């Protein structure tokens, strides 16, 4: 939203919004790497805390996950953000192999995963029935009920 010159509500406003937190893909990439490294144990081999999208957003200095999604819409930043999201998803996938996986399933569904089955049924012995055969079957079914 732009304000007209002389508008008393526009005093002190020099831009049309908050300036971006990160001015280059390299800057956000470094900060993302720092986040994931901060979650590793002392040996740097396993996560002492699992990475999350909200945790990443907060570590980057954002007030909400939406800010992270806003950066995802910028061409220069989309690859870096998508890769970070995949690392978080991988962490949830690993949780699926444990006994307590309900939270991971919920998180993955919110990340676009689907839990659905597709059933295709075919009858290899099917033949087209004549009208007479259909009537006979109908009358037989009526008699059974």
SSE topology:
Layout lengths: L24 H14 L14 H7 L5 H8 L2 H21 L6 H9 L20 H14 L1
Describe this entry's structure for a reader:
The protein has a domain at 17-110. The protein is 50% helix and 0% strand. It is built from six helices and no strands. The model has no long low-confidence stretch (mean pLDDT 84).
Task: Summarize the structure in short.
With 145 residues, this protein is mainly alpha-helical. The chain has a domain at 17-110.
Total beta-strand segments = 0
β-strand percent reads under 5%
What about the largest sheet? none
General form: elongated
Structural class: mainly alpha
Distance between the termini: 71 Å
Structure annotation, total helices: 6
Sum up the structure in keywords.
6 helices; 145 residues; single chain; mainly alpha; elongated
């Amino acid at each position: 939203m732009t304000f007209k010159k002389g508008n008393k509500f526009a005093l002190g406003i020099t831009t049309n919004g908050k300036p971006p937190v990160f001015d280059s893909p390299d800057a956000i990439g470094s900060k993302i790497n720092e986040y994931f490294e901060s979650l590793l144990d002392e040996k740097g081999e396993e996560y002492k805390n699992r990475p999350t999208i909200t945790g990443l957003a907060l570590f980057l200095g954002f007030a909400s996950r939406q800010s992270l999604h806003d950066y995802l819409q910028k061409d220069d930043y989309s690859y870096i953000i998508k890769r970070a999201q995949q690392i978080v998803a991988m962490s949830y996938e690993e949780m699926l192999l444990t006994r307590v996986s309900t939270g991971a399933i919920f998180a993955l569904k919110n990340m676009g995963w689907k839990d659905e089955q597709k059933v295709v049924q075919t009858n290899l012995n099917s033949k087209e029935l004549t009208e007479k055969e259909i009537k006979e079957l109908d009358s037989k079914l009526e008699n059974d009920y």
